Amino acid sequence: MDRSASSGSGGNLLPNLLGADAPIDGGRGKIHATARDLSALLDSARPRVPGEVRVLVTHVSPGKAPLVSLLAEALDVDLTVSGHMGSPYGCVWDDFAIREPAEAEARLAAAASAFPEELRQRLPAPAVGEGRARWYRGTFHVNLPDAPDGHAVAEFREGRLRLETVSAGLPLRG
Smallest Cα–Cα separation from 116: which of 11, 22, 43, 20? Predict the structure, then answer.
């Protein structure tokens, strides 16, 4: 029997507003996550069960907000799924595919320093060294297209994750 666990964080992950109690971002009316929201998310994590697949669902991509990568590491997730990023294509990637180990580690360290102190103390330091850390080479990220442009289907079967992405494609230039 396959087991999966999912968790998520709504709104934007804005490092400079994590300490704010109000989840509304000023006059723009955008909802953002607070330190309290992220603490609750960390509290909800239970120990990993053998055979379990963990998924973290967020609005913003870890490619844009490295805080998502830190949360993925802290929650020991296998896959992050983030909302529309404006591309007509979904994409799947891990840090190994796009960054050298030192660059990826520095990016996470900078993201950790942006957390409020009480939240930073709750996050384990991400494992580093020679690009072998699980978060670097083994946590995959799915960025979804806008809904009219496509979708993705994930299926957990026999201890494996199957992912199918569908795109309406790019219109051809005339």
Answer: 20
* Alpha-carbon span 85 to 132, nearest angstrom: 28
Q: How many CA atoms lie within 13 A of 19 on its CB side?
A: 7
- Distance linking the first and last C-alpha atoms of the chain: 51
Report pLDDT digits (tens) over 7-64: 555 666 666 656 656 555 555 556 667 777 888 888 888 888 888 888 988 888 899 8
Of 61, 69, 72, the C-alpha closest to 12 is: 61
Coil vs helix vs strand at 75: helix
Distance of CA 89 to the CA centre of its chain: 18
